[in-house]
Amino acid sequence: MARQSYPGGMTTEVPQDAAAQDAEWLRLDRQICFSLHAASRAFNGVYRAVLEELGLTYPQYLVMLVLWEHGETPVKKLGEHLRLDSGTLSPLLKRLEAAGLVHRERSTRDERSVVVRPTEQGGALRARALRVPRRIAAATGLTPEEIRDLRTLLDRLTTALDTAAREGVPDRG
Amino acid sequence: MARQSYPGGMTTEVPQDAAAQDAEWLRLDRQICFSLHAASRAFNGVYRAVLEELGLTYPQYLVMLVLWEHGETPVKKLGEHLRLDSGTLSPLLKRLEAAGLVHRERSTRDERSVVVRPTEQGGALRARALRVPRRIAAATGLTPEEIRDLRTLLDRLTTALDTAAREGVPDRG
DNA sequence: CGCAATCAAGTTGTGCACAACTAAATGGCG
DNA sequence: CGCCATTTAGTTGTGCACAACTTGATTGCG
Question: E strands of A17-106, at which residues?
Fold first, then answer.
């Protein structure tokens, strides 16, 4: 997995003309950075438009998707599903609760835990959300196969990146 | 481009058992949503770790990449390159200026425009940034071919999504 | 010319992401 | 039992994204 060959036939071994190669890498990095960043925000923008009529933001929609699929869920579990910590979830859930879509209640079995469940209104929203995914898929202009490929690639990417982040990113291969 | 067939052999024509299909789509949407959202944040996390020693955030790095490649650039142009508006760029540039990395000056030719250029210190930072892309690429665990494929897919995605966002996302195909 | 439309940057307000921290409950161990 | 490490939510502070708005400069047209 390590030791791959790269653009100029270069390997992760110490190259001879590192400076010139580095400059080229900087250009490539700019491109991939931009692509990913732009795609992420473009996706966000389409979801924003589609979710507007539901009164949900994109992260709020993700939370509701989990609740619709699994029902009553502790904040901790929500965080694991979504890879979000309480610093993000607490205020988000507070807003969902203020909107009357979810109910939060401290567990009696373990009073550290807070259990979140959709309210009746929150459950009813699912019916209106059902047509969202089709519209998003249409907006991507990708075939189902391409969507699947993209997802596979993204999941591999996430796993690798998370591992790298945990173990530290080496300066040289 | 429109009118694609989907999972159950369904087309964008009015389907017969829309409800059951919709429920399945909701599950798929949860998956692709999560994948993209997670990948985006995982990428961000790795950049955060690598850029920490440069004292840059990820968006600040993107700005510096543009400035290193093109030199003196008006805020407007920066925004076009990065697809960011002044509401994001103004405070970001203010922080970069406070850090001594860029200089901002109102153009004398057109006093609406503000021109940004790297300071000497900002230019010097490029040397230290040169090794960043290699480390990121290593962290992805992807081959150069896969990186290229990913970029192609992401660019197509962004174009399609931006078009859909501009033209409005249809409820039914 | 004079004025309305346009344009660039900046400001304000809302929401998300995340690091660092606090507070309270729990569980294990001497 | 009593104490401490761990766990779970929540809070605080910083920075980004974006919509809506303000301000001031420029442009174009009657």
Answer: 73-74, 102-106
Tell which wins on pLDDT, A89 or A131.
A89
- Asked if the structure places residue A100 within a domain, the reply is yes
Give the chain B residue whose CA is nearest to the CA of A30.
Answer: B65
Please tell me if residue A41 touches chain B, with a CB cutoff of 8 Å. Answer: yes
In tens, the pLDDT along A116-156 reads: 999 999 999 999 999 888 888 888 888 888 888 888 888 88
A119 domain residue, yes or no: yes
Q: In A 40-79, which Cβ lie closer than 7 Å to strand D?
A: 41, 44-45, 48, 74-76, 79
Chain A CB contacts of B32 below 8 Å: 147, 150-151
Q: What H or E segment, with its residue span, contains residue B9? A: none
**Does A62 reach chain B within 8 Å, measured CB to CB?**
yes
Question: Helix, strand, coil shares of chain B as percentages rounded to 5?
Answer: 65, 10, 25
Residue B106, both tokens: 């109102």
Burial profile A120-141: b = 16 or more Cβ within 10 angstroms, e = fewer: eebbebbeebbbbbbbbbbbbb
Residue B5 CA, chain-centre distance (Å), reads: 30
How far apart (Å, rounded) are the C-alpha atoms in residues B153 and B138?
20
pTM, two decimal places: 0.85
Q: Has residue B10 got a pLDDT over 50?
A: no
pLDDT tens digit sequence for B95-112: 999 999 999 999 999 999
Residues of the domain holding B91: 53-125
Is any atom of nucleic acid chain C found less than 7 Å from the CB of residue B76?
Answer: yes
The long-range contacts involving A90-96, CB below 8 angstroms and separated by at least 24 positions, are A92/A59, A92/A60, A92/A63, A93/A63, A95/A60, A96/A60, A96/A63, A96/A64, A96/A122
Provide the CATH number for the domain around residue B94: 1.10.10.10
